Amino acid sequence: MSDPDPDPVLTVTAERHPAGPTLITLSGELDFATVADLHDVIADTQFTAVGVVIDLTGVLYCDSAGITELVTASQQARKAGSPLVLAGLSDNLRRVFGIAGLHAIFSSYPTVDLAVGSL
């Protein structure tokens, strides 16, 4: 019997949503050990007027490094004149965002469809 993998895993994908915006989907743990995966996708993202949706539905955990990368993505989007919204924040992430005052920076929606519709 093998031991479970102790290293956190994050899967990040980027694709064009049928409605036009770029959809970045995360699944797993967004933390110091995995944030480079999100950073690389953000660096390759074309921030356009159509917008970007970051789907956090599959995020199990997010630490300050993950939040910092999300704030950096927001700053890049704003600089490019591109709307950026979040989708699928868990109750825990919503609470953390509230405590940190991040609701003033991010618009968030319960589902990807609602987030896309907001753009």
From TrEMBL:
GO MF terms held by the record: anti-sigma factor antagonist activity
UniProt-listed PROSITE patterns: STAS
Domain of life of the organism encoding this protein: Bacteria
InterPro entries, alphabetized: Anti-sigma_ant, STAS_dom, STAS_dom_sf
Domain STAS span(s) in chain numbering: 20-119
UniProt similarity note: Belongs to the anti-sigma-factor antagonist family.
Protein name in the entry: Anti-sigma factor antagonist
Organism: Actinacidiphila paucisporea
